[in-house]
Amino acid sequence: MIEEIKINNRLIGAGFTPFIIAEMSGNHNQSLDRAFEIVKAAADAGVDAIKLQTYTADTITFNGSNDEFKIKDENSLWNNQNLYELYKQAYTPWEWHKPIFDYANELGLIAFSSPFDESAVDFLETLNVPVYKIASFENTDHILLKKVAKTCKPVIMSTGVATISDIQESIQVLQANGCKELVLLKCTSTYPASPENTNVLTIPHMKKLYDYPIGLSDHTMGIGASIAAVALGACVIEKHFILRRADGGVDSAFSLEPEEFKNLVIETERAFLSLGKVNYELTEKEKKSLQFKRSLYVVKDIQAGEIITKEHIRSIRPGNGLHTRHYEYLIGKIIKVNVKAGTPLSFNMIN
User: Fold this and answer.
1) Which of 215, 248, 250, 337 is in Cβ range 3.0-4.6 Å of 90 for a Cys bridge?
2) Same CATH fold assignment for domains 4-55+91-275 and 284-349
3) What is the pLDDT of residues 235-287, one digit of tens each?
4) 284-349 — its CATH code?
5) 295-320 as b/e, with b when 16 or more CB fall inside 10 Å?
């Protein structure tokens, strides 16, 4: 079982804080300056990595005008759009990759991309990317999987729109062609996804099913699904990143703004840290709080030789007196010394 992988000097796996990927996609709106702003804002938000998508309209689809090449889904953000025209609008020019990657590296980010065909892999190899991402719609493209695997670099693969048998077959293709380090991302490939169809309970099942680290490619709005995923064992979170949703863009509707992304980084780390281990022992700090538990105190002056009644003793804070389990036993016993109200009760006071 592969419990962790290493990208540059960053370890990714169950024992490490979540690896947070900011997906730029087409949110640069065809402005290189905006792309640089996104990288800087992502770094300021505390992410681990920035990710691009490497394709052109011609490498990802065909310039066809019939309905086969149109998106026909009333629930889609891109309903009725021609695929070729959509990808012309959304793609990241290949000549931008190096300056974007260089800038990201200067800011301490890991920079990589999702290739969508063999030529994109060849191009990304010239930039010496440290890891490859396989997008959900490409996770059954064995031609691409073989090409990526032969680089022998770590692979992060989304598992959207794929059955268990599809995923297993794709893993076998990657393994057979040189991929030794793999992370699988639970993914619901609707844009945006709803919390109800995200099904993060699949994550612990995937951890049992596959011998690889598991994460979440999250297309919901907000950060709740990602936090839940980390609580269930996700070690990678990928979310789309934008400077301002109001500016628009192909993925703007399901992308997080910088302040939201900063909260994502903070809260997923808190979720991870809160997991800890199975433990029923008191922590050192909790031991100091024992004094605030209830115990038995004398609450009314009582003279030596008197019988203890309910008016004399009560369960109150702090916890310096006898345990409350002794309450019934003590009622009716004879006190052997004078005791003032406010004194913690002890057995040496009782005959």
Assistant:
1) 250
2) no
3) 999 999 999 999 887 788 889 999 999 999 999 999 999 999 999 999 898 99
4) 3.90.1210.10
5) bbbbbeebeeeeebeeebbbeeeebe
Percentage, residues of the chain above pLDDT 90: 82
In this prediction, residue 202 carries a pLDDT of 97
Mean predicted confidence (pLDDT) in 35-41: 98
> What pLDDT, on a 0 to 100 scale, did the predictor assign at position 139?
98
Q: Is the pTM of this model over 0.70?
A: yes
Q: Measured between alpha carbons, how far is residue 192 from residues 172, 218, 280, 347 in Å?
A: 30, 9, 40, 66
Q: Looking at the DSSP assignment, which residues form a beta bridge with residue 82? A: 70
Closest CA to 261 of 278, 275, 243: 243
Are 25 and 90 in contact, with CB atoms under 8 Å apart?
A: yes
Residue ranges covered by each domain of the chain? 4-55+91-275, 284-349
In tens, the pLDDT along 98-155 reads: 999 999 999 999 999 999 999 999 999 999 999 999 999 999 999 999 999 999 999 9
Q: How far is CA 192 from the centre of its chain?
A: 17
Q: What is the dihedral angle through the alpha carbons of 33, 31, 138, 216, rounded to the nearest 10 degrees?
A: 50
Looking at domain 4-55+91-275, what is its CATH homologous superfamily?
Answer: Aldolase class I (3.20.20.70)
Per-residue model confidence as pLDDT tens digits over 311-348: 999 999 999 999 999 999 999 999 999 999 999 999 99
In Å, the largest CA–CA distance within the chain is: 103
According to DSSP, residue 75 is labeled T
Region class of 135: left (phi > 0), else alpha (psi between -120 and 50), else beta: beta
Q: Which two tokens stand for residue 213?
A: 């680290």
Distance, in Å, from the CA atom of 195 to the CA atom of 221, rounded to the nearest integer, reads 8
